[in-house]
Every structure is written in structure tokens, then in C-alpha cells.
Amino acid sequence: MSPYLTSLRAIVTREALRFIHQRERFVAALVRPLIWLLVFAAGFRAALGLSIIPPYQTYITYETYIVPGLCGMILLFNGMQSSLSLVYDREMGSMKLLLTSPLPRWWLLFCKLLGSTIISVLQAYAFLAIAAAFDITMPAIGYVTVLPALVVAGVMLGALGLLLSSFIKQLENFAGVMNFVIFPMFFLSSALYPLWKMAESSELLYTICAFNPFTHAVELIRFALYASFNGPAFLWTVLVTSMFTAAALWGYNPARTGISRRG
Amino acid sequence: MLPISKHVIAGGTAFLLCSTTTHAGEIWVTNEKDDTVSVISTETLEVIQTYETGERPRGITFSKDFSRVYICASDSDAVQVMDPNTGKILHDLPSGEDPEQFVLHPDDKHLYIANEDDAITTVVDVESRKVVAQIDVGVEPEGMAVSPDGKVAITTSETTNMAHWIDTATQQLFANTLVDSRPRHAEFVKDGSEMWVSSEIGGTITVFDTATQTEKAKISFEVQGVHPDRVQPVGFEFTEGDTHAFVALGPSNHLAVVNAATYEVEDYILVGRRVWHMAFNADRSQLFTTNGVSGDVTVVDVASRKALKSIKVGRFPWGAAFRP
Predict the structure, then answer these.
(1) Which of A25, B47, B161, B298 is most buried (CB neighbours < 10 A)?
(2) What global pTM score does this model have?
(3) Sheet architecture: strand order including B204-209
(4) Topology of domain B44-220, per CATH?
């Protein structure tokens, strides 16, 4: 087997094993969006107002509205979790071991990204299944068409995690990620409320939401769940993914990190 | 916990039905504030035609052969007869003042019309275009129904809170039964053995035994997250075989699905604002509801009980009728 594939298999398997062995992490990853879906959304059931926006063709309950945003939440938290584990790896020394591999660094980081995205997508599907059990369903075809959207969004948020991990030197600094990355990204997006609703209260907040890449990731998922393609959201997500990935590669540049490869 | 597969399949069914429905037909909807009727294709789920009518069109029904459509033009004090193929008004029928709802007798000849302002029910012969009878009923009559055998007609009066039972042979009242506040709509069901009346303010449906005119059951509604005052049952229709009733709950913006055997509410479906009346397509697989305030018609998949699409029509859509 090519060393590339060997490393791919090894890194993805390691990610999978780490996830399987941390059952509480899986439960936590599902409990978080489920609390939003079953508690928060129930309280705000009538708060959304009545307006039909694409991709919806009729009136929907708030629970239905926030499902794509909560899928995005799973991907976002998982991306950050992956970032956290990279910082942990660096502290424990296993990162050094990985990066001293003779394979190109971009390939190693790509394998890491792929591994975390697969875990994210599986979690998102588990969440969709539980939502369906509570009668919050999408068209059947939507469960298929959402897969590429989840992958694209998962890669974007995983790349963001990689980027952050290249700059965060210690686990203690991770709390800042929560305050300055996860919360603003999630709340300043279309995950919990449609943007027209945001525009009603503040034009500035609306503009920030419209530029937030997480908004576009959520909209990409939302449209895909209804077997529709949101071109602008897709382009925006891919563009931002490229930017995050390029920045992450720069962040992991041996000349910058001081972790150089030795032959 | 509910089985996942059932719901996923239900969602899929809704989608497939939405995308592959081939039962051609039209839903005609009266637009109260636009003085028009909108014609929706049951195949494309789009408005394919809009015709002008008299002022404030509300009740709408077709003749048996679908060659004529009768429209209550309430503020024109007329029932208009339209050619559905051309949209041309053929003539007006003498309807009495402010006709709101009506029902066509199974003989295809007599229209029973509720005259809201005059507290009477007018019976019109659609062929001779003459008033056959005028029957004094309670104040503000609205809901109209006729039994499948044509022997009994019902008028409900909004202010008197009664269902008035009319013997169609003599055109005389033979019974008056109390119902809850502001009865709006009446329907015979199960081969005429039961008669259902919705009460808008009372928030209930009263089920009568037709033979004895006695109350058999009362159905109440409760929509999660909606104040009980806003749960106002108005129009309702029955599925194939009269197994279930779909009930429009007015400003609660929901439909209720009632099991017609147990009288239990099984489901609620979110539709547009102030849902009022409704009509089924040809095979009763889809239901079209008129949503007055949001100015649209919501298409509901009957099997999965899911709203599929809301179609913009004119302002304040009110009545709905199907033609193949």
C-alpha cells in the first residue's frame, strides 16, 4: 500500500478510535443540539413569525427551521474539538511524531481533516435520525443530498479548527476559542433565526451574519436537506475553506513552528 | 420513542407525492378582498387562472357535471353562475341579501343559501332561476349542509348558536338543536347518519345523530403553543371513507386531523394564517386549505399529514371547490 494511503488509514483510524473510546464525547455532541431542538425550540415555537423563505415551500415550525443550524453546530463543535485534540497532541508530543513523518505536511493535515470530518458527518446523521424519531423530518431524498453539504461544511469547520490549533499553544487558551470563535460564529448566523429577522432589529448584525461563513455553511445544509442547491452558499463555503486551509498550512509551516522534518 | 423509519418513510412519501402527483384537476378558490377566483392546477400546484367575480366572493360550489360554478358574491347580494371553461359570468341567481354559504341539493337543481343579514335560508331553483322558498332561521345563518339522500338540509346560525333542521320536502323547520358559540360549518357524514357542526368561538365540533337530532359527541381542540382563544374551528372535510376529518382551526393557523370513529384528535398540521375552508383533489390524496390572512393556499399530503407547499393566491382566500 502506498505510504500516502497507509498514513491516511492510520490517521483516520486513530480519529475514529479516539471518538469511539470517548463515548461521553459522542453523547455530549448529540445532547447539545438535542437540548436546543427539544427544549429551546419548544419555548420559542411561536417566535419565528410567519414567512416562507427558500428552500421551504410552506410554513414550518421552529423545530424544523433550526435542524440545519444544529447540524452546523455539531460540525462546528467537532471542528473545534478536533482543534483541541491537536493542541493536546502537541502538548503530549504525539504531534511531533506525526509531523516528523517523511510524507508532506499538507497530506498529513488533510488526513487529519478528513478523519474529523467523517466523525462530524456521522454525528450529524445520528442527530437527524433522533430528530426524525421526534417527528421532525425532511424529505427522504434530503437525507441523501445533505451528505455532500455536510462534508463541505465539515471540511470548512475542520480547516478552521486546524488553523486555530496552529496558533493555540496551550490547552488553557482553548476557553478563548469558545468565547471568540464558537459563540460569535453560531449566534451571528442563520442557524437560530432567519436573516430577515435579524435585519429587522439591526442592519449591522445582519451584515455581519451575511458575511459569517458559518451562515453559508448552514444555508448550504438547509438547502441540501430539501434537495436544493444553494450556489452562492457553496461558493462562499469553498472559498473560505481554501482560505482556512491555506492559513492552516502556513500555520503548520516548519519554518514557523520549528517542528521540522528529519529524514 | 417513535420508530424512526416510519417518519422517514412518511417524509419521503410526502416528497414523492409532491413530485409525482398526476391526478389532473383544479382547485377553485374565492378571494374575498380581491373579488376574484384563483384556479390552481392540482398537477403543477400553481395558479393557472384568475377570474373576476362580483363583490366579496365567499361560498363556491360546482354543478354535478362541473359545467357551472356557483359563487356567493356576498356584497353584490347575488349568487353568480360562471362558465368554468371561460370564466364568464353567465347570469346571477336571486339569492336574497348577503349570501355567504350555500349547498347544492343532490338533485343538482336546488341551492340552499344562507342569507346572513336577513336570518333566512333561501331556496333557489337554478334552472328556473326563481326563489322556491325562504325559511326563517336563527340570526346570522352561515353553515349549510344537505343530507346525501336530499331529505334534510341544515342551516347553522352564528348568533342564535343553533343548527336548524329543514325538511326539504316541505321546506319547513322540523328541529332546532343548540350548539356551541358561533356555528360556522355543517356536514353530513357516514351516509348521512351523522351531522357535524363546527363552533368557531366555542372551539368545538358537535356531532349529531341524524335520526334523532341528538348530540352524540363533542370534539375539542388544543394546539401546542397557541392560546385556546385562537383555536377556532371553521371549515372541515372528510377523507375517503369518512375515516378522518380535517378541521380548519382559523387563527391558530393549524389543521386538526380527527378520527371520525373515536372523535379523537390525532394530529395538528401547521398551515397558513387564519385557515378557513378547504377542498380535496380528485383521489383525496391532497387537501387544499384557504388561509385568509396570509393570502395563500396550503397543500397538505393526506397520507403523511404534512404540508407540502403554500401557493400565493389573491387577498383573503375564503372558499374552495374541486373540479376534475
Answers:
(1) B298
(2) 0.82
(3) B183-189, B194-199, B204-209, B214-220
(4) Methylamine Dehydrogenase; Chain H (2.130.10)
